[in-house]
Amino acid sequence: MSKAQNRKVLIASLVGSSIEWFDYFLYGTVAALVFNEYFFHSDDPTVGLMLAYASFALAFFIRPLGGVIFSHIGDRVGRKKTLVLTLTIMGGSTVLMGFLPTYETIGVMAPILLIILRLIQGIGLGGEWGGAVLLAVEYAPKEKRGLFGSVPQMGVTIGMLLGTIALSIMTLLPEEQFLSWGWRVPFIMSALLVFFGLWIRKGIDETPSFKKAQESGEIAKIPIVETFKTSWREVLISVGAKVVETAPFYIFGTFIVSYATSELGFSRTATLNAVTVGTIVTTILIPIMGSLSDKIGRKKLYIGGTIAMAVFAFPYFWMLQQGTVTWLVIATVLGLGIVWAPITAVLGTMFSEIFKSNVRYTGITLGYQIGAAVAGGTAPLIATALLSYFNGSYVPVALYIILCAAISLIAMIAVREKSKQELDQDVAM
């Protein structure tokens, strides 16, 4: 494949992934700033916040369903068609959120409609990640597979960065204007990004791996059945490996918004700016780490990042407790920007390398989305509950991060390093 084609594939993978995650993370941040008061009405602020985080977590549990639906299409019909569907569904639900009336206007229907749209978001994202990763990995030269596979992972942080920047700009408005209409602007404007993403993906052909599976007649009739029949161990490994990548991420990027503002007295703008800086750092490091994995191997880099995550858990909260914006930024940059980068950079490529091509979309999607449901969407909720139960002590939350790292280290024991092998050399069933 020519350099121009490589560039086109990577842009299509990155742009679509970034838009999907931008839509998704908008909800997570606004949940802590607006939804807890204006949609999930409660006399107790903690209850309102936990209800908002519960709605945030719901989409994670629906994501495996979206993954099953769209990975079936991806393994049966093709990666490209699936990615067009997921982007359309995700974008439509996000735009509609921007027009929803609040609890004060329509009562209990406000949180119900919000949750329905959030679930639709989850279904769309459930199928997006696997397709975006495979679009990059299945086109990649063997010696650059780590780099290519890290590019859609940049979409996670770029999407978060775009969402954080958009809300940071909106929070410059007077409080009353931000709460009445300012928060809605990024949701509605996301329609422009969706149209751009669809246009970019229009010119991409089907991946070489999928074409080979079609030509050899190895397309699975029912991919999910075939996956659990032949690759259930790989699914379990992927779920376990996902835990340390997802739970700390939502603590460093989402939980921190409410924790720093309500518990530690930081301003909303300072907290969002810290997350923005950390996100920029990790976005720069992800492709560097992906490229490094092509030289030293995915497993070694992933284990190093996981151990660093466990070691950093207590220092992270100690830094936040210092109460200065400088320490807030340093803690966020170290956690979200540096420690997390090698873990997420190799995740997609490593998952892709342990599944055969005819169930690869289904396999990596199940592992990723089940892991995200178990450990990702629940992370802000668990962290908030632990803080409340233990009277504001961060120790249980730090121990929770260490537990996540331990689970992923156990899962990694069963992973065989395949960075030097051809992607489809083990396809034959």
Summarize this structure briefly:
81% of the residues lie in helices and 0% in strands. It contains 18 helices and no strands.
Order of helices and strands: HHHHHHHHHHHHHHHHHH
User: Over the alpha carbons, how many angstroms does the gyration radius reach?
Assistant: 20 Å
The description of the largest β-sheet is: none
Helicity range of the residues?
over 70%
Counting DSSP H or I runs of 4 or more residues, the number of helices is 18
Assign the structural class, choosing from mainly alpha, mainly beta, alpha/beta, alpha+beta, or little secondary structure: mainly alpha
- Report the mean per-residue pLDDT as an integer: 86
Low-pLDDT runs of 5+ residues are: none
- Termini gap: 27 Å
Strand portion: under 5%
Shape label: globular
Number of strands: 0
Give the arrangement of secondary structure elements:
Elements: H1 3-38, H2 45-76, H3 79-97, H4 103-106, H5 109-137, H6 145-170, H7 175-182, H8 184-202, H9 208-215, H10 223-230, H11 232-263, H12 268-296, H13 298-321, H14 325-339, H15 341-353, H16 360-376, H17 379-389, H18 395-412
Helix pairs in contact: 1-2, 1-3, 1-5, 1-6, 1-8, 1-11, 2-3, 2-5, 2-16, 2-17, 3-5, 3-8, 5-6, 5-16, 6-12, 6-15, 11-12, 11-15, 11-16, 11-17, 11-18, 12-13, 12-14, 12-15, 13-14, 13-15, 13-18
